[in-house]
TrEMBL record:
It is an enzyme of class 2 (transferase). Residues 401-512 form the Malate synthase C-terminal domain. Residues 5-53 form the Malate synthase N-terminal domain. Gene3D superfamilies: Malate synthase, domain 3, Malate synthase, domain III. Belongs to the malate synthase family. Its EC number is 2.3.3.9. This is Malate synthase. Pathway: Carbohydrate metabolism; glyoxylate cycle; (S)-malate from isocitrate: step 2/2. Transmembrane segments: none annotated. It catalyses: glyoxylate + acetyl-CoA + H2O = (S)-malate + CoA + H(+).
């Protein structure tokens, strides 16, 4: 039977239709609210904690207790749901596999449906593969498979291969709905459950929508309320001001928050792109997790989670090993060790790695801090106090804007978009993991530098014509790359158009024809 026949059964499609009829219009309203709120913040350069939800922040409440297989999350491997990578992730020794239909995935229809088919087999432990070269992959007998936590698309993306009431489907509801419909009961039967990572939310009202979707889906399938567990990525600047409210909305279903650093940086640039030089960031590689505004964000996240009994999950260090180059691998291991040590020391309960060869280093660091405990929820970090000013203190970020930084942004942006259009939503570029979030930073930063007429450290001012000449050189250097022309054109649009494009994946999705 084809993947489409296995996944898009009439019952599954009817379930999706029910989700769309119940929640599609609310999704549209919430997306419209995003634009209003940003326009207001851009005028003032300010965001603040909400007055109307003060009571929630001051009241005593906790999120639901984590299910048994989500109490120890010290190492989480992330990756696309492609069959070989799925098996490798499940066998990697990580506690959790973030099965990614989002930042690391191009929503080609084959990836969307094939990913669901791979998840179906993964949940049942039957996933196998024989490559054209004859190499065989199956789940190992001597490794506990990673617990699956699936990440659906964000609220902003449609899925045009399905329509309900003559409108394209909501990508997030398709990804969630198919996974939940096919696997919720099977997961429960195996002692696990339907677990999700929720990306790119901008407010607690968007979390409320997810909570209502979970409540509806559980009732429809006769699955007990509270079976779903969701970890929310705090990866937009407005969401950083609503961490408690987001957990509160999802409290029956919440299991934690994650510091999604790459989209967070993108969001800071996007949100305040017109708010003047105080929000202009230096080269992407110069902005580290020790920049004051990034530290305020992660400190507040750990404090908020542990106050509410939720897990605080660390993010992705982008350095990846190379099995053919020991020097690159040694550097990646050092960088990842530093990153995970800081997170474990700050109170995070676990963190992300992008590659199986990074599982041991993350494990070693968290083992060292956790000892025999499964997590450090008991480190409540009561001493942490973070103000709105500290979250917004972008101006104190050390580093400069350089010509090398500009060239790197253009090069990575074009290469990544080309990869995305080819169907690979995650790629190793110059020994760094690049995905939709990191590429967004590159192009948004170029837009911001042009808009703010940033002067590079060599005295040259960044203008659209300078960027176009760098783009032409990049294009010449990458001659022969698949999808190069479309990628360069798209980069020009998302980095230089007067009106900032909200997500590069929106015009990119319009360009794919499968
Ligand atoms: C900002 C964020 O949202 S971060 C989260 C989203 N991003 C991601 O999830 C990216 C995850 N990582 C990846 O996709 C990959 O590691 C890449 C694209 C960066 C590099 O992949 P490759 O170039 O294939 O790496 P490499 O050649 O070293 O792979 C070696 C082996 O490890 C496997 N592997 C590499 N990364 C992963 C992974 N994340 N999960 C499972 N297996 C993996 C490869 O499939 C390969 O397997 P094989 O030996 O059986 O053939
Ligand atoms: O999704 C994670 C991020 O850093 O973005
Ligand atoms: Mg992200």
């Amino acid at each position: 039977m084809s993947d489409v026949d296995r996944i898009l059964t009439p019952e599954a499609v009817a379930f999706l239709a029910g989700l769309h009829r119940a929640f599609g219009a609310r999704r549209d309203e919430l997306l419209a609210k995003r634009a209003d709120r940003r326009a207001q913040a851009a005028r003032t350069g300010r965001l603040d904690f909400l007055g109307e939800t003060l009571e929630i922040r001051e009241a005593i409440w906790q999120v639901a207790q984590a299910p048994a297989d989500l109490r120890d999350r010290r190492v989480e491997i992330t990756g696309p749901t492609e069959r070989k990578m799925a098996i490798n992730a499940l066998n990697s020794g990580a506690k959790v596999w973030l099965a990614d239909l989002e930042d690391a995935n191009t929503p080609h229809w084959d990836n969307v449906i094939g990913g669901q088919a791979n998840l179906y087999d993964a949940v049942r432990g039957t996933i196998e593969l024989t490559t054209p070269e004859g190499k065989q992959y199956r789940l190992k007998d001597d490794v506990t498979p990673a617990v699956i936590v699936m990440r659906p698309r964000g609220w902003h993306l449609d899925e045009r291969h399905l329509t309900f009431d003559d409108k394209p489907a909501v990508g997030a509801l398709v990804d969630f709905g198919l996974y939940f419909f096919h696997n919720a009961q099977a997961l429960l039967d195996r002692g696990s459950g339907p677990y999700f990572y929720l990306p790119k939310m901008e407010s607690h009202l968007e979390a409320r929508l997810w909570n209502d979707v979970f409540t509806h889906a559980q009732a429809e399938l006769g699955i007990p309320h509270g079976t779903v567990r969701a970890t929310v990525l705090i990866e937009t600047i407005p969401a950083a001001f609503e961490m408690e409210e987001i957990l509160y909305e999802l409290r029956d279903h919440a299991s934690g928050l994650n510091a999604g650093r790459w989209d967070y940086l993108f969001s800071v640039i996007k949100y305040f792109r017109d708010a003047g030089s105080d929000f202009v960031l230096p080269d992407r590689n110069a902005v580290t997790m020790t920049a004051p505004f990034m530290r305020s964000y992660t400190e507040l996240l750990v404090r908020t989670c542990h106050k509410r009994g939720a897990f605080a999950m660390g993010g992705m260090a982008a350095f990846i090993p190379n099995r053919r180059d020991p020097e690159v691998t040694a550097k990646a291991l050092d960088k990842v060790r530093d990153d995970k040590s800081r997170e474990a020391g700050d109170g995070f309960d676990g963190s992300w790695v992008a590659h199986p060869d990074l599982v041991p280093v993350c494990q070693e660091i968290f083992d060292g801090v956790l000892g025999t405990k499964p997590n450090q929820l008991d480190r409540t970090r009561d001493e942490v106090k973070v103000s709105a000013e500290e979250l917004l203190n972008v101006a104190a970020t050390p580093g400069s804007a350089t010509e090398a930084g500009l060239r790197a942004a253009v090069d990575v942006g074009v290469r990544y978009i080309a990869s995305w259009l080819s169907g690979n939503g995650a790629a190793a570029i110059h020994n760094l993991m690049e995905d939709a979030a990191t590429a967004e930073i590159s192009r948004a930063q170029v837009w911001q530098w042009v808009r703010n007429e940033v002067v590079l450290d060599n005295g040259v001012t960044v203008t659209a014509s300078l960027v176009r000449s760098v783009l032409a050189e990049t294009r010449a250097a990458l001659d022969g790359l698949a999808h190069l022309d479309e990628a360069a054109e798209l980069f020009d649009q998302v980095a230089l158009a007067d009106d900032f494009v909200d997500f590069l994946t929106l015009p990119a999705y319009a360009k794919i024809d499968c």
